[in-house]
Amino acid sequence: MENPKEVVAKSALKYISPGDVVGLGTGTTASEFIKALGASQLAQKVTCIPTSMETEVLGKTVGLNMVSINDIEKIDVTVDGADEVDQNRNLLKGGGGALTREKIVAHYSKKYIIIVTEEKLVQSIGSRMPIPIEVLPFSYVQIIRELNLMGLSCQLRSNFITDNGNYIIDCRLNQKLLKGSLQEINNAIKIIPGVIETGIFINFNPVVLYYKDGIVSEFK
Ligand code: 5RP
Questions:
Q1: Ligand 1 atom with minimal separation from the 93 CA
Q2: If you count Cβ atoms within 10 Å of the first and of the last residue's Cβ in the chain, which end, N or C, has fewer?
Q3: What is the mean pLDDT, run by run of 10 residues, along the chain of 220 residues?
């Protein structure tokens, strides 16, 4: 039986050209893309930027030329997965805890390709998965208290440290916040001292490729 993540991952190869600097996402779907890129004729013709240590190791294992984001001048295209995609192609990311590096790499990418399976398409961000927030360990209890007062219901992700040495707090939105402005929620979270980054990706204008019933389509 075909693996939907592998199928959608392979469909993203057409966005890569020889000579490209390619940002590589993190997670099970992004991993399928990394393996497909490594097995393709493009493998020796691209330079890759990892969004996590896990991705760096996998990229090297499949024979890709992995360099640091500080070693390049531009990123032509990044391919990554997502936990949720809403009607406006806003994203929720960070299920794998790599959200900060993923957001940085996405920010510097000329083209941003998101590969998902059908169930990741949602009405509103936060309806299926909690919102991951990367925070400094120093004041995480205070940050959770403040987020709870804002109407979020937050939990420390147990036994998890990010590649940046920080904690992840996973937050559910109440019904009122789910219907509210995503930008306002994101701003309110980001303003708390000690918050490093959120998994809410607004206005990145990605090309979203999704797998449904054996077919990959672009979500518009
Ligand atoms: C990691 C991420 C992943 O892209 C997201 O969690 C989707 O992962 P998967 O493809 O395994 O469902 O944001 O931080």
A1: 13
A2: N
A3: 95 98 98 98 98 98 98 98 98 98 98 98 95 98 97 97 98 87 96 98 98 96
